[in-house]
Design the sequence.
């Protein structure tokens, strides 16, 4: 539930240049922590039950102490996640109707999110020179959040049917049980793939955020990053004077966003590398610029080595699963569930560390060139 936060009052707040912006309260942070822990446990205990015929799954079930122990742990985690979601619904209802907080309404998708999505896609493909500005939540955060509202009814209903099949088949047709089994397992695979491939990258591994986005644990976001990622809300929350104080002056040729449309930030305003892989590389528009960016990115030895380790680990895991290695070999489970994922994680850290060094080198190079800072010198001024 990492996209939900408490908005500020209508009256602009004061904010010093070194202050962090409060985004999540303690309730939201605890809810996310419970959701995160229970999700990991559910995946770790549910996947071997879904793919029980694999040798790796049989080894992993044995690691948990057998099928019954695995199911028990899985069900405890499921009930805990369900309780967390119910608490969140109560929390949202209280915040909306009793405390009169506007943030639940701000999470509802609008027409602006539709335009923001296509504008951001065009920006990353090099087809647009401007990227959208966001308010409290961007379209990715909203999609991430409402995916839980889509997935939890599927998880919860199918899980109850699988746990109590006799009760439900008293008034439902018998085919509801195998249908619940398919829905529960396939939704789990989809959720796990989304979390690993999309959620973790955009929230923790993306350049400008790596190595960790601590806001969901501390409740606070560095004010400069908050200004860049949520520029519209930053100005509405702290006022134009505060935005100017931290270097967020109006850029030439940028008009306020009309209702239902995306406000834009010139490409040069994002050229300091905040949110980019390599500082300044996004100023190259078009397919040729993207190819040059990829060549420069993978020319670094650490980045190329990390990517190679990741691809090698994934290829070996796929080879083991496709070749259907006979069951009963504990080493296969050790390699598939422990050694190879650890190797892939190591490759990911090497890759991201290489990206971090590349960005740092590019920033230092830009700082030594003596060229003026187009963003108004906000970072340089704070350090001075």
Sequence:
């Amino acid at each position: 539930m990492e996209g939900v936060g408490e908005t500020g009052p209508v009256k602009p707040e004061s904010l010093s240049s070194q202050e962090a912006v409060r985004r999540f309260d303690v309730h939201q942070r605890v809810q996310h922590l419970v959701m995160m822990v229970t999700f990991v446990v559910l995946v770790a205990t549910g996947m071997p039950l879904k793919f029980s015929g694999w040798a790796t799954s049989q080894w992993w079930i044995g690691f948990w102490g057998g099928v019954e122990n695995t199911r028990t742990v899985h069900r405890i985690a499921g009930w805990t996640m369900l309780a967390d979601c119910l608490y969140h619904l109560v929390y949202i209802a209280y915040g909306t109707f009793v405390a009169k907080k506007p943030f639940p309404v701000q999470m509802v998708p609008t027409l602006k999110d539709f335009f923001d999505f296509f504008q951001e896609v065009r920006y990353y493909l090099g087809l647009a020179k401007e990227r959208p500005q966001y308010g409290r939540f961007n379209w990715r955060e909203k999609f991430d959040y409402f995916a839980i509202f889509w997935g939890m009814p599927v998880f919860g209903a199918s899980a109850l049917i699988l746990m109590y099949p006799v009760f439900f088949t008293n008034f439902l047709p018998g085919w509801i049980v195998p249908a619940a089994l398919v829905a529960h397992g396939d939704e789990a695979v989809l959720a796990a793939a989304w979390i690993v491939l999309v959620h973790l990258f955009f929230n923790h591994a993306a350049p400008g955020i790596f190595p960790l986005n601590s806001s969901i644990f501390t409740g606070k976001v560095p004010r400069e990053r908050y200004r860049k990622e949520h520029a519209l809300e930053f100005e509405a929350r702290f006022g134009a004077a505060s935005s100017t104080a931290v270097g967020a002056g109006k850029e030439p040729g940028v008009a306020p966003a009309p209702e239902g449309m995306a406000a834009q930030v010139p490409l040069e305003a994002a050229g300091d590398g905040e949110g980019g892989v390599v500082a300044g590389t996004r100023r190259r528009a078009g397919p040729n610029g993207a190819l040059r960016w990829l060549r420069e990115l993978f020319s670094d030895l650490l980045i190329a080595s990390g990517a190679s380790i990741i691809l090698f680990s994934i290829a070996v895991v796929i080879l083991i699963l496709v070749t259907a290695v006979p069951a009963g070999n504990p080493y296969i489970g050790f390699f598939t569930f422990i050694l190879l994922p650890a190797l892939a994680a190591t490759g990911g850290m090497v890759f991201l560390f290489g990206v971090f060094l590349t960005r740092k080198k590019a920033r230092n190079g830009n700082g030594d060139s003596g060229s003026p800072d187009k963003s108004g010198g906000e970072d340089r001024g704070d350090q001075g």
Observations:
- Confidence is low (pLDDT under 50) at residues 1-10, 245-286, 368-384.
- DSSP finds 15 helices and four strands in the chain.
- Residues 273-369 form one domain.
